[in-house]
Amino acid sequence: MQYLIQLLISGLAIGAIYGLIAMGFAVIYKSTGLVNFAQGEMTMITAYIAWTISTTVSGNVFVVAVGAILAAVLLGLVIERLVMRPMLGEPVFATVMVTIGLAVILRSAINFIWDAYPHGLDVGMGRGIVHLGGIGVRTGQIAVIATLLFLLAAIWAFFRYSKVGVAMRAVAADDRTALLMGISATRVHALAWAASSVIAGIGGVFFALSYDLSPAMFQLGLKAFPATILGGLDAVLGSGLGGLLIGITENLAGGYLGSGMKEVAGFAMIIVVLMVRPFGIFGERDIERV
Amino acid sequence: MPATIPHPTPSAAPLAATAPDALLEFRNIRIVYDNAIEAIRDVSIAVPEGSIVALLGSNGAGKSTLLKAMSGILYTEEGVVENGSIRFRNDEVHRLAPDELVRRGIVQVPEGRRVFAALTIDENLQMGGYTRTGAEARERRDKVFTLFPRLHERRDQIAGYMSGGEQQMLAIGRALMTDPVLLALDEPSLGLAPLIIDRIYEVIVRLRDELKMTVLLVEQNAQRALDIADYGYILETGRVVLDGTAKKLKANEDVQEFYLGVSSAGRKSLREVKHYKRRKRWLS
């Protein structure tokens, strides 16, 4: 029993990281209609920047957090402006190919700018262990789950109640008509890239806190992508929850069926879910009557 | 040139087109798509303040193209205003961004309504008020609700599930949220039942008479449009072939025959129609 709970908790913790990155995918998809295959790489860059701040400027957790968020915003805006905006109006396929190219460039940038060795991100927090009813949980794990839940609620409220959030949905649904209403699609896109970069970046920093930084970190994107598909590409909240599901499934499969199953389990679940619900668990069907 | 219509009356140079008091004016405009296809050739149209101006013509005549140019979204289809200008209150506006045009008071209700299907009615209206402050938008929304009480009843419903007529009302309401000076409507009667069209048209007349709004009405349904319009232009293959007051246009034999579907001289054979079309193409 204790073993099961332990597996569930660590599954939730890694799942929350997948969930954050998956939400990054979904925010961009929801407002621009694109799948950003460089999401994992953007996550990795943000984590590396956080590490650089912690080693050069200050290891204070607030300094690192604020610095990493600003860096993520900047990264998102720069990519949108330099790479994505010129592709506006081009076929979706071409644009998605551009994100794949971008992914490869960012991946190599790690080796140019930093190095190929693993590093630990230390902000003096997150590695301590708390005992909850006899089960040891790392504070970082609790923090990442709490962060995911908080962001889920915040983003739900943002898309539901804020003018800009509704505008993002409007642009995604029909960008031409949004233009006619005076909604600047480019500004909305830029905002989506910045937000997505920050949300995913938070996931990356938490990953670096709990495990370590390495140039292989971009693979988080490959794990988070199924979470987005599972939850529904257009469902930001669903993607967050999809991440939790993938995390738990992976950990249970790894714990009970052997570590070889760990990698496979998430994808096996995707195949089954998509057969039953091709839009993902929380994805919206297009409204047919229009 | 307008003067080449076979039968009577076209005013040689459209008088209103150079009228200085026009709110919106297309001046000798030429629009080209993809650097190759000329969609609009030397068109001049004037929309005087406080009037309803009808823009008539069949499919592909270039009516929607003019509206897209007016709203600054031609570029999304690789279209460019090559010659001439569009003037709003005597300022050149055809190079402005769409959101700036909306801020200045130009808005259009696009063809096919295009409500944001997955958003609620309230959210659709909120998007119409995107360029306005929260307080302004709330005030506008109350006005829209008095104009269309139906929208108020169903404000929390998903727009995509409404009937076509309700969607048209929502699309108009959404455009009114921008607090427009000039409202352009692209085929508001498209695909709607006659009774619903009546109601939509009643609202358009009220917009002019009660709210002093200027309306540019694009229609294929010439009968309806000329019933409420003050002035009309007829577009064919990218040029104005006829213009005049609504009354004059309705009395024009060609308009009656080819746009209003009435014939003074009994039934005519298809050959004569073709003959007319061919002749006009050669002459124009």
TrEMBL record, chain A:
<keyword id="KW-1003">Cell membrane</keyword>
<dbReference type="Pfam" id="PF02653">
    <property type="entry name" value="BPD_transp_2"/>
</dbReference>
<dbReference type="InterPro" id="IPR001851">
    <property type="entry name" value="ABC_transp_permease"/>
</dbReference>
<dbReference type="GO" id="GO:0005886">
    <property type="term" value="C:plasma membrane"/>
</dbReference>
<dbReference type="InterPro" id="IPR052157">
    <property type="entry name" value="BCAA_transport_permease"/>
</dbReference>
<feature type="transmembrane region" description="Helical">
    <location>
        <begin position="190"/>
        <end position="209"/>
    </location>
</feature>
<feature type="transmembrane region" description="Helical">
    <location>
        <begin position="7"/>
        <end position="29"/>
    </location>
</feature>
<keyword id="KW-1133">Transmembrane helix</keyword>
<feature type="transmembrane region" description="Helical">
    <location>
        <begin position="140"/>
        <end position="159"/>
    </location>
</feature>
<comment type="similarity">
    <text>Belongs to the binding-protein-dependent transport system permease family. LivHM subfamily.</text>
</comment>
<keyword id="KW-0472">Membrane</keyword>
<feature type="transmembrane region" description="Helical">
    <location>
        <begin position="49"/>
        <end position="79"/>
    </location>
</feature>
<keyword id="KW-0813">Transport</keyword>
<keyword id="KW-0812">Transmembrane</keyword>
<feature type="transmembrane region" description="Helical">
    <location>
        <begin position="91"/>
        <end position="114"/>
    </location>
</feature>
<dbReference type="GO" id="GO:0006865">
    <property type="term" value="P:amino acid transport"/>
</dbReference>
<feature type="transmembrane region" description="Helical">
    <location>
        <begin position="229"/>
        <end position="252"/>
    </location>
</feature>
<feature type="transmembrane region" description="Helical">
    <location>
        <begin position="264"/>
        <end position="282"/>
    </location>
</feature>
<dbReference type="GO" id="GO:0022857">
    <property type="term" value="F:transmembrane transporter activity"/>
</dbReference>
<keyword id="KW-0029">Amino-acid transport</keyword>
<protein>
    <submittedName>
        <fullName>Branched-chain amino acid ABC transporter permease</fullName>
    </submittedName>
</protein>
Automatic annotation (TrEMBL), chain B:
<dbReference type="InterPro" id="IPR027417">
    <property type="entry name" value="P-loop_NTPase"/>
</dbReference>
<dbReference type="InterPro" id="IPR003439">
    <property type="entry name" value="ABC_transporter-like_ATP-bd"/>
</dbReference>
<keyword id="KW-0813">Transport</keyword>
<keyword id="KW-0547">Nucleotide-binding</keyword>
<dbReference type="GO" id="GO:0015658">
    <property type="term" value="F:branched-chain amino acid transmembrane transporter activity"/>
</dbReference>
<protein>
    <submittedName>
        <fullName>ABC transporter ATP-binding protein</fullName>
    </submittedName>
</protein>
<dbReference type="GO" id="GO:0016887">
    <property type="term" value="F:ATP hydrolysis activity"/>
</dbReference>
<dbReference type="GO" id="GO:0015807">
    <property type="term" value="P:L-amino acid transport"/>
</dbReference>
<comment type="similarity">
    <text>Belongs to the ABC transporter superfamily.</text>
</comment>
<feature type="domain" description="ABC transporter">
    <location>
        <begin position="24"/>
        <end position="262"/>
    </location>
</feature>
<dbReference type="InterPro" id="IPR003593">
    <property type="entry name" value="AAA+_ATPase"/>
</dbReference>
<keyword id="KW-0067">ATP-binding</keyword>
<dbReference type="GO" id="GO:0005524">
    <property type="term" value="F:ATP binding"/>
</dbReference>
<dbReference type="InterPro" id="IPR017871">
    <property type="entry name" value="ABC_transporter-like_CS"/>
</dbReference>
<dbReference type="InterPro" id="IPR052156">
    <property type="entry name" value="BCAA_Transport_ATP-bd_LivF"/>
</dbReference>
<keyword id="KW-0029">Amino-acid transport</keyword>
<dbReference type="Pfam" id="PF00005">
    <property type="entry name" value="ABC_tran"/>
</dbReference>
<comment type="function">
    <text>Involved in beta-(1--&gt;2)glucan export. Transmembrane domains (TMD) form a pore in the inner membrane and the ATP-binding domain (NBD) is responsible for energy generation.</text>
</comment>
